[in-house]
Write a structure and sequence with these properties.
The chain is an all-alpha fold. It has five helices and no strands. Helices cover 56% and strands 0% of the residues.
Length: 79
Amino acid sequence: MKLSAEDIRRTCGDLPDWKLNEIQASGADLDDLKQALAWCAGDDETTPMRHIPPGSAAARVYDVLMAGEEDDERDGGRM
């Protein structure tokens, strides 16, 4: 089932609209989203085979969630 913006916010917290749109466009389901979020948190014990297969929906979501994180940290979290 396709993720709604509400599903994504309930799982990930507040995200910029562009990230919500990219996650929705990824074709990911709730399991993919939770897997990507666990990987972002460094909790790889909860991810199957301890990695996200390249090209999978979970990998695409992971890339979206991590996009811009380095810039945010360098700027002290300011957008």
